[in-house]
Amino acid sequence: MIGVGVLTGSFGLTNCSRPGPPSPIVQKAEAAGAGDLATTSDASISQWLAKNPNVAKEIEGMCKPVRMSASATWGDTTEGRLCKASGKIAFFAPSKTTGDDRKFGAGNH
Prior knowledge:
Shape: elongated
Distance between the termini: 84 Å
Structural class: mainly alpha
Number of helices: 5
């Protein structure tokens, strides 16, 4: 019976805590149409970013400086989960390439 009381009490405390304000990174993804990322699975975040590679690239650019000084628990936050997914998707996203009109062939050095 004591275990139930402790469990109920700790459950009540966790539900009363207020989450911090969402990060600009999370806000950008949600504003781009990702929906509420706090309740979204990692797989769903990755799927959405794969359908929106330009957003993934922008978010990855925002994540790089944050990732360098992040704590060990950052990867479990909404921002951390979003940044992990954006890193994977942005790596494989097509990029615009430009040529310099040079032609290569036999004998051309």
